[in-house]
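Lab notebook, design round three. We kept the backbone fixed and only want residue identities now. Task for the bench partner: fill in a sequence for the structure below.
Input structure tokens:
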């Protein structure tokens, strides 16, 4: 019986180790650009010429964003928010040259919808974490008081 438990414990340790060694690196600029381009192709019904140009634009933007992240890592005082906004403005201007007016309007609408979803998600996460941090001390003190009063009765 102990031999089986020992083997099971070793198996659990090795599977945990193998799981922790999985590649969890961030997607490359090429991968991000390809994913965004695929989504835009479907959402905006891009033709083949547009797909090629949009992919180039998305790749250039992804590389710019990587460069901005590297700058921020090297110097925390870098205003990365402004740099990212400028990169996004450049991307939008380039896309406007490639997309039809209807496609560009739809692109802007989809972008705004996504932005609102992210803001709502961020807001709910912040509210959830602040509610937990505020509730936790009260819960702990109530538990402590209950335990203390029951202990004194004994």
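Proposed sequence:
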């Amino acid at each position: 019986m102990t031999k089986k438990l020992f083997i099971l414990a070793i198996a659990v340790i090795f599977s945990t180790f193998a799981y922790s060694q999985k590649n969890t690196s961030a997607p490359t600029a090429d991968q991000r650009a390809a994913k965004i381009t695929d989504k835009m192709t479907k959402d905006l019904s891009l033709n083949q010429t547009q797909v090629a140009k949009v992919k180039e634009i998305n790749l250039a933007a992804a590389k710019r964003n990587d460069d901005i992240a590297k700058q921020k890592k090297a110097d925390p005082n870098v205003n990365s928010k402004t740099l990212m906004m400028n990169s996004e403005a450049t991307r939008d201007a380039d896309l406007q040259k490639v997309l039809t007016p209807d496609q560009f309007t739809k692109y802007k609408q989809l972008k705004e919808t996504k932005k609102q979803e992210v803001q709502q998600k961020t807001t709910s996460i912040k509210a959830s974490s602040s509610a937990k941090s505020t509730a936790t001390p009260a819960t702990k003190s109530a538990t402590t008081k209950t335990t203390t009063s029951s202990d004194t009765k004994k």
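Keep this in mind before ordering anything: Residues 140-154 have pLDDT under 50 and may be disordered.
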